[in-house]
């Protein structure tokens, strides 16, 4: 083709001897592709800016060195050779270099047989790379819920980086380091799961190797039960909440989200059940309620007679008010609304998300949800919920729902905020912020400047103080609890560490608004000051006590203050179990005592609630009914739904479930009631209704004693007894 | 003036000055303040060795590991330092290699807490490091600050910048280009590209925003001449840049200097301020209506920054990764605008030629070569230093005349005409002339005039390994052949140097090395990756029997490769950057 005949804006070149005419500005790679010549590449993708870093697409243009065709624009008269020995040899060496460091077969090759590097290497006949292998591993990153990172399989093609920057404009991923030790990094080289990554999946979809792969979440496929419909990624992408998510990623997670239809009256989920999914209502209305009686276990009777059978009954707090009760008006549940103590029923509608705690943290369902009309909802597993929560549109919508529907209840649910004026709550609706924290992340540190007040919305926050011998957990706060007031009211410095125990969401009220609030509402101020004073006093006491006995002893024993301990003198004890039987007799046949525990010389400290330094029983309570009040004693609030999680969590076996037969809603026949067995959690009550604990009273060998722990341990330490 | 990427480096330096390193919280605050994604800050901060992402030890000892220092016992010095500081916590002291510090004429050089000390022995280095551990302020020594008169300086009196003054008045830019073209002035940084063509290309670009960049990032082992020129002929460099600015229509000049040249930074800064005061830089030069601003940009570090497009990336505040070419900087340079990038010596040459004329320039060289050349001579020579020699002079005269021959009465075994990139030539080739073509014909190159002398005790395989290791350490990591290939070449040569490979395996290795050399030379994006094979290829060509002795018989004829210090050091040398 003569140059004179070339039309304007076009360029004539030859590729492997064949004449080709392409628009000016076309790259050699594209010119070849458009004319049926395939040039292999690893770093080049059609929808991303070419970077020319893998160099596999090199061609001979007659210049001093070979050119990467993906970044080389055509020039008039250029003679391109794509398959000479010179080109093929260099290309093969490049593949062999990469394969020497590649963990073949990588995750992608193993899962889907489509690792692009391994495929090209096989085609080039590379079996055993002749170069030395990488000696220093770059490692794996397993922190993301949805994407597995294997840095050893990364070939630094930059495809993920461009996917993150150019395609999704999320700006999370980049190159780090230099030379042979270079790699990819998220943010400031954070683990992927802790980074600002929104799990859109674009990087994983862009990756040619097993460096970024889809992570199979346990039980990824939700059982396709009745009313469940799987659906195509395109359908999902039409919803604004999935905007920005990669279609391929949704495709890969296909089983992790289903659309479900529930007929009117149908049960969606039941309180106390374990689960791993969250629901997002698309159409229809659902009723959320608690069917376990709102009451606690009370043991009565037998004040005088020997071995008189005692009876346990369920009573509400109106009848039997316990000193340690919080007096809350609302019951926090795993949805955008709270339930009221008097009438624990609420309604959910389109746009509402519920079951987040169950889904993210695997807690039991906090309430029963039933379709009020025909309901259509997405049911999703954790990896999909994670993606959605990181989606700005969806997050904004959930935040908005919270501000509109739940903030007021949430605030007013805390008794001391009950008197806030409506206009102030309106103001707060504008200024509060929902903040998420990953497990283990610090929300505030002891000694930090206090600038915010927090209400817990989702998850558990661990409040702890630093002591020379270690960290002491003061409380696990869950939904309905608040923290940060001591720092704001006091010296402006945080007095404790506040750490997210699991996936936590808090409502942050800026310090300025908090100050306005306490200025405007004296009742709030007094209430807060009272609580703060109590907490400070309790702290002071704890400090003094810890000074009395070495903290490490105290802590290592897991035996903390307040309650009396049941101690069995093993020199006298005949293991007759009369104490255990007496306890069972005293509590409707359910013992709260196990004759086992730590031994101190010839004493055995029997298992009974010991107000642990780290009260694991509180972690995970779906309705926040097991709490530690300021005296550090554990109390089980009336709205316990009997799921049994606390009993399973207690490492000492000190929490038991007490079954009761009650009239409750019949799951088979909505609207009707039938006799059902419901459970309530109980822990040792020291038989406070009796003069002496029945276990001690029952011991025929004078081996059981109730002792005051501080005194007991000081004696133990004084006498130099060894803990066994 | 357009803001340069210096902003991010200034921010990072400020943080590092406050904390001694870059704490995460500060980087997060910087990200929020400047609306820069976290990853961008991290990818830049983790690229440049100047920045610490972790708290540094109280004494950070870095022993220069490259060519001239290596020839002067750096490896043993490092091993001795490790012994002397054995048992100390990593937070107290850390001993590592560092790439060439540009003090090759006073080897070995050691950097302690970013202060550079030369002519080190273990006692002195230990004393300085102990002082650093006590928290004492360290002060650098600056040998050779005495003003030196140079034949290259066309101005003998105090009145300088005469070419620039005249050009501001007569604006005869065509004349300048014609003179430079006739002089055949070529780039003095290594590649030797005709200067007038570069300037002319930029001049012809129909764009208002253009830049003049001076590459003063000389970091190739053995290269120290620009340091000398900036110390003693700073005015010629500045004048050359300003002339280039006027000729091409660029209104802003940036002098990119390596961060280890603290003294030169000061000298240039002072001279630039003087020029601003007398109206030779800045707006409305001498009342002419012409503008030319000039600033110094301190490199955040790394040999790769000397590659012109990587240098541009660094000025823009990015990782210094070379660009794919074309387009070349003359068309798409700094901020994608037409940019002249020349070496310090090239700029310094321009006013000489314009002042003295082409005839002088022709006559200043020998045997048909033109002009004067600054060369650095280091290694095993009696008088290491920087010498101003006529182009075309036989190498033997430089080595034995100017540099005083081989130190300690030893025999010359080999020399590198220009650092590792030129490869090694045997003593028998010492008559080669210092000239672009003559050296290219000898299978080497003129490069930047970094002449390194090796006496007869030198192990040439060791020198090849040392050179490849330097490239491996300094590879930016952007492209596969250089990033992975340089490491694999180090692995291969390290195995050879430790000997006893079966003959069949050796033959296979040689074939593999050739394949790797071909791929690196042909497929790498920039000159760094392309030149990596040169040192070992030159050693295989001229000193094959030495390599054979190592590989086949497990013997190092110079008796050094199998030493304990070498073997022990090997384990710690997987890359310089942690």
Structure in words:
The complex is a heterodimer of chains A (724) and B (578). In chain A, the strands form 13 sheets. Chain A has a 5-stranded antiparallel β-sheet with strand order 11-12-23-14-21. Among the domains of chain A are: 3-83, Roll (Ubiquitin-like (UB roll)); 107-214, Alpha-Beta Plaits; 409-548, Jelly Rolls (Sandwich); 558-718, no CATH class. Chain A is elongated, with a radius of gyration of 33 Å. Helix content of chain A is 26%, strand content 25%. Chain A has 20 helices and 39 strands. In chain A, helix 2 crosses helix 4 (116-123) and helix 14 packs across helix 15. Chain A has 724 residues and is an alpha+beta fold. Mean pLDDT of chain A is 80; it is low at 302-309, 550-562 and 720-724. By secondary structure, chain B is α/β, with parallel strands linked by helices. Chain B has helices spanning 6-19, 24-34, 38-45, 67-71, 74-84, 122-133, 162-170, 173-183, 195-204, 225-232, 234-248, 262-277, 308-315, 344-356, 358-364, 395-402, 436-441, 460-474, 480-497, 503-523, 527-531, 534-542, 544-553, 564-571, and strands spanning 59-64, 93-98, 110-112, 115-117, 211-216, 252-257, 293-298, 339-343, 372-379, 385-390, 412-416, 425-426, 450-455. In chain B, strands 10-9-13-11-12 form a 5-stranded mixed β-sheet, with helices on both faces. Chain B has a 4-stranded mixed β-sheet with strand order 2-1-3-4. Chain B is globular. Mean pLDDT of chain B is 93; it is low at 574-578. The interface between A and B is large, with 48 and 53 residues.
Question: Outline of this structure?
Answer:
The complex is a heterodimer of chains A (724) and B (578). By secondary structure, chain A is of the alpha+beta class. In chain A, 26% of the residues lie in helices and 25% in strands.
The secondary-structure class of chain B comes to: alpha/beta
Structural class of chain A: alpha+beta
Mean pLDDT reading of chain B:
93
Number of helices of chain A: 20
Strand line-up across the major sheet of chain A: 11-12-23-14-21
- Bin the helical content of chain A: 25-40%
What is the strand tally of chain B? 13
Shape of chain B: globular
CATH architecture of the largest domain in chain B: 3-Layer(aba) Sandwich
How many helices of chain B? The count is 24
The interface involving the most residues is between: A-B, 48 and 53 residues
Question: Which stretches of chain B are poorly predicted, pLDDT < 50 over at least 5 residues?
Answer: 574-578
- The fraction of residues assigned to DSSP E strands of chain B is 5-15%
